[in-house]
Design brief:
179 residues, alpha/beta, Histidine-containing Protein, Chain: A, 2 domains, three-stranded mixed sheet, 5 helices, 6 strands, 26% strand
Length: 179
């Protein structure tokens, strides 16, 4: 009986290590497009990182950030966010720190912002299951379900382009999370 218990214990250990290695290998082998989209989504929804001129490229897991951010703090934060993306093997931060251009600050009422974001989302049939959960001082919270990660990014981008939106947070779920 002890021998059987030992054999089962060893078999369980081997199985556990094999499954753990498989999951780690899968994470390391995420497609570049998946890593890029996850990084863009994370950056678009991170407080303190303005994505007005920030681009992300990924080649063989190496993420490159380029464009402009307003502060050195935003540059460091963007790099940390990108480094935390599953499948990102390294991050090359080529962001330039350039103060924001004089963009007109718009103080629209939250109800007007909600209406306008809803209209923008409704204009795209692929985003029909995404809605505005709330708006608080220009911060829009989206919820719903989309088919792909690319549509998740599109929903956040669509909302962020609406006048009066300061930042977008998301509770959107993606049906094809393992793209």
């Amino acid at each position: 009986m002890q021998k059987l218990t030992r054999v089962l214990g060893v078999a369980g250990l081997v199985l556990g290590l094999t499954l753990g290695a498989s999951v780690a290998a899968q994470a390391a082998d995420r497609p570049d497009s998946w890593v890029t989209l996850k990084a863009k989504l994370a950056l678009m929804t991170t407080d303190g990182v303005d994505t007005w001129d920030l681009n992300v490229d990924t080649v063989k897991g190496a993420v490159t950030l380029h464009g402009k951010v307003a502060t050195e703090e935003a540059k460091k934060k963007a790099e940390a966010v990108a480094a935390g993306i599953e499948g990102a093997k390294s991050v090359k931060n080529l962001l330039q720190v350039v103060p924001k251009p004089n963009r007109e600050a718009v103080e629209d009422v939250d109800d007007v912002v909600k209406t306008n974001v809803d209209k923008a989302l409704d204009a795209d049939p692929a985003l029909k299951d995404v809605e505005v959960a709330s708006v608080n001082k220009g911060v829009v919270l989206l919820r719903g379900t989309v088919e792909t990660l690319a549509l998740h990014v599109k929903a956040v981008d669509t909302a962020s382009r609406v006048r009066g939106v300061r930042r977008v947070s998301t509770e959107i779920t993606t049906k094809a999370e393992t793209e």
